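Below is a filled-in request sheet from our internal design queue. Each sheet records the structural input a requester submitted and the sequence that came back. We keep these sheets so that new team members can see what a complete request looks like end to end.

REQUESTER: design group, bay 2
PRIORITY: normal
MODE: inverse folding
CHAIN LENGTH: 418
BACKBONE (tokenized):
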């Protein structure tokens, strides 16, 4: 039986009624332990300061149900729907019959659709924020009565599928190429309907303007933020490494294919030569739900796969460097920002640096292939770039503040505070 929970009348305080706002999010925006949930959590937290938020969302990880009361307390009303990833993948194949992107039936749910329509009518909700393009399907009907609408696409998901298609063999390359085309068509329809379309970086926004020129005048962006008090090199943490180890750390959800692709490529193409030259060097892969492919990397000398950890900060603070060797990426990589905030030398590929605008050799180290990455890492091992972490942290403090960036969303909604 599908698990569903709707919580009503949670909002307390506020002498003057806040404007009502519907917020739809494809995944419960807590805990902020992965890229999309970091952004959605801070967005919800910000919106709840000014609006009565009516939240509709899915819970796709059983462990996240424990956070449902915390999230519900931030909202006037909320609806949480269980999403079983295996069942959803099977349901997504209906897209082959309907001709739509497979991502849409994956997130299609009658109970959530009914809740959206009923809650919107009951409270005469006129303001709408959608997080992730797939959730826009619940609001495309013209009779819902919204007057101010904004969608946070975050990334261009269709382009991510296009990138996937270039690295897979038939039939997956055909499926992913189809998904890229179908999803882009839907994204363009959404951008046409919504008053504002927001992205995670200026680069992402510029790319979408090129893909959907008819909506370019409504496209903008706001940067992610980093809690630099939390991600601080001054924090006291236990060293998770052996005293003899020199560690390169990668952090991220390890069931996310771009992360899987990155660590496997790095482990096979970049790390072995470095390990041969530096026997004490270790490569730690830090993140939840490692796939079988990732777990098998522990068979290689010097590689450690941690699985889920409660706090990534010790793994960053006590590493000699953080690495983000992404080959497939869209938008801003929070793993890079967090490592920079922890004042670690951060070694990246170009895909991992999109939207950050950090300077190579001054704030980050940028390598385009395995030889360049090997040379840069060896220089760090040899004691070069000792001050780069301090400048990296300064860059994050300057450009990636939630307090500075989130008001852009409210500006687009044109709402007054409570």
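RETURNED SEQUENCE:
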């Amino acid at each position: 039986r599908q698990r569903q929970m709707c919580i009503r009348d949670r909002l307390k305080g506020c002498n003057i009624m806040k404007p009502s706002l519907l917020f739809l999010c494809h995944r419960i925006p807590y805990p902020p332990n992965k890229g999309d949930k970091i952004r959605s959590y801070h967005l919800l937290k910000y919106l709840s300061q000014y609006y009565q938020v009516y939240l509709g969302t899915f819970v796709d990880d059983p462990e996240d149900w424990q956070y449902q009361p915390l999230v519900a307390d931030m909202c006037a009303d909320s609806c949480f729907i269980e999403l079983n990833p295996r069942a959803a993948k099977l349901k997504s194949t209906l897209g082959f019959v309907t001709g739509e992107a497979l991502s849409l039936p994956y997130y299609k749910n009658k109970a959530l659709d009914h809740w959206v329509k009923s809650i919107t009518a009951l409270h005469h909700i006129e303001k709408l924020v959608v997080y992730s393009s797939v959730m826009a399907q619940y609001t495309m009907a013209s009779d819902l009565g919204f007057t101010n609408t904004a969608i946070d696409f975050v990334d261009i998901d269709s382009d991510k599928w296009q990138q996937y298609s270039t690295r897979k063999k038939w039939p997956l390359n055909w499926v992913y190429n189809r998904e890229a085309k179908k999803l882009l068509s839907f994204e363009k329809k959404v951008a046409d309907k919504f008053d504002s379309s927001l992205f995670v970086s200026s680069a992402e926004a510029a790319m979408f303007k090129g893909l959907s020129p008819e909506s370019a005048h409504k496209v903008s962006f706001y940067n992610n933020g980093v809690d630099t008090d939390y991600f601080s090199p001054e924090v006291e943490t236990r060293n998770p490494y052996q005293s003899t180890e020199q560690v390169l750390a990668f952090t991220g959800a390890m069931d996310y294919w771009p992360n899987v692709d990155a660590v496997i490529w790095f482990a096979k193409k970049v790390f072995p030569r470095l390990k041969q030259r530096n026997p004490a060097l270790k490569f730690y892969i830090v993140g939840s739900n490692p796939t079988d492919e990732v777990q098998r990397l522990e068979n290689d000398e010097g590689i450690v796969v941690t699985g889920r950890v409660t706090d990534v900060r010790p793994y960053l603070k006590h590493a000699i460097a953080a690495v983000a060797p992404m080959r497939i990426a869209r938008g801003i990589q929070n793993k890079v920002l967090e490592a920079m905030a922890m004042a670690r030398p951060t070694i990246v590929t170009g895909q991992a640096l999109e939207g950050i605008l950090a300077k190579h050799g001054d704030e980050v180290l940028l390598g385009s292939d395995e030889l360049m990455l090997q040379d840069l890492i060896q220089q760090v091992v040899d004691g070069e770039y000792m001050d780069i972490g301090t400048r990296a942290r300064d860059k994050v403090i300057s450009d990636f503040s939630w307090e500075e960036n989130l008001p852009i969303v409210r500006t687009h909604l044109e709402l007054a505070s409570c």
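SHEET NOTES:
- The chain is about 40% helix and 15% strand.
- The mean pLDDT is 93.
FILED BY: M.R.
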